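subagent[fold] <- orchestrator: predict structure for attached chain, return C-alpha cells only, no commentary.
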Amino acid sequence: MATPFESKDGLGWVDQWGSDKDPLPEDVSKEKQEPTQKQKFAGKVKTVASTGVDKAKGVASTSAKKLKSGTSSGIQWIKDQYQKRTKK
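subagent[fold] -> orchestrator:
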C-alpha cells in the first residue's frame, strides 16, 4: 500500500522531484540579489508614509482631546444657564 506521499507507481516525493537540487534557481533567489531601483524607491516611500501616518495620529489625538474638552465646557455652560433661569 502506498503512503500519502507516494504516487501510484510507488515513487515518493523525493524520488520524483529530487532532494539534491536547490528549491529555487540562483537567478530567482532573492537573498543573492541586490534590491532593484523600484524596491529601493518603495522602501523610501514606506518610510515617508509611516512618518506621515504618525503625524496624522498625533493630530487626530490632539483634535479628539480638544473636541472632548470643548463639548464638556459647552454642556457645563448650558447647565449653568439653565440653573440661572430656574433660580429666579
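orchestrator: received. Logging for downstream: The mean pLDDT is 78. The chain is about 65% helix and 0% strand.
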